[in-house]
Amino acid sequence: MKRKDFYQLIQPLTDKLYRVAFALIPDDLQAEQLVIDGMNAFLLKERNSIMFRDVNLENKKETLILRRHYYKGILRFLVDIGTRRAIQLNEQMRITRPPEYNSFYSLDPKVRVVMSLRYDSQFTVEEIEDILFIPRFEIIEKIHNGRFLLLNDLNKGANL
Q1: What is the distance between the alpha carbons of residues 5 and 108, in angstroms, rounded to a whole number?
Q2: Which of 16, 41, 58, 107 is the most exposed place for a label (fewest CB within 10 A)?
Q3: Cα gap 6→97, rounded to integer Å
Q4: DSSP output for 8-55
Q5: The whole model's pTM is what?
Q6: Integer Rg of the chain from CA
Q7: Which residue in 86, 82, 53, 85 sits closest to 69, CA to CA?
Q8: In contact, 123 and 76? CB cutoff 8 Å
Q9: How does pLDDT run across 18-67, given as a tens digit for each residue?
Q10: How far apart, in whole angstroms, are the C-alpha atoms of residue 56 and residue 74?
Q11: How far is the C-alpha of 21 from the C-alpha of 9, rounded, in Å?
């Protein structure tokens, strides 16, 4: 596969990747850079298996399977880089956070990404487990705790 074919294959995924990146880092420029960094890290790691693979982009089923595989692979790198970067930029991001989502962005970055993958990207717990390499109980715990904290903030706001 040529580099051009790879980018053509993953082009429809960029919006989904951006949404996950923005869940980690609520800044347009930082989220875009995170998507680029995730793609580059994936390409560097998987370069040999990607570039020597013959792909028929006319075959829709093969294209969808390959696209889903690449999406999960890029997400692994994006989340790994993004959680570390989100922790580093946490203080700076307080200024640029959208105020209506302040409760969400006050959560731990790993909780935010698990919730984003579960509810925004519609991944199952098993798929999230496969992407993030964390145990199932930890994913369920992050989803439960994140929902609990968001509901508490919502209730506090309603009581004011």
Answers
A1: 37
A2: 58
A3: 33
A4: HHHGGGHHHHHHHHHHHS--HHHHHHHHHHHHHHHHHHHHHHHHT---
A5: 0.83
A6: 17
A7: 53
A8: no
A9: 999 999 998 889 999 999 999 999 988 887 776 656 666 677 888 888 88
A10: 21
A11: 20
pLDDT value at 7 more than 70 = yes
Q: Classify burial at 46, counting beta carbons within 10 Å of its beta carbon; exposed 0-12, middle 13-18, buried 19 or more.
A: middle
Per the CB < 8 A criterion, the answer to whether 82 and 15 are in contact is no
Q: Which residues contact 115 (CB under 8 A, 6 or more apart)?
A: 23, 104, 107, 142, 143, 146, 147
**Integer Cα distance of 74 and 97 in angstroms:** 25
DSSP assigned state of 79: H
Token pair recorded at residue 103: 């409760």
Question: What tokens appear for 11 in the block?
Answer: 């082009």
Side-chain half-sphere CA neighbours of 108 within 13 A = 9
Cβ neighbors of 49 (< 8 A, separation 6 or more) are none
Contact assessment for residue 131 and residue 76, using Cβ atoms and an 8 Å cutoff: yes
Q: How many Å apart are CA 69 and CA 147, to the nearest integer?
A: 28
Section 84-96 average pLDDT: 76
The residue among 158, 125, 122 whose CA lies nearest residue 144 is: 125
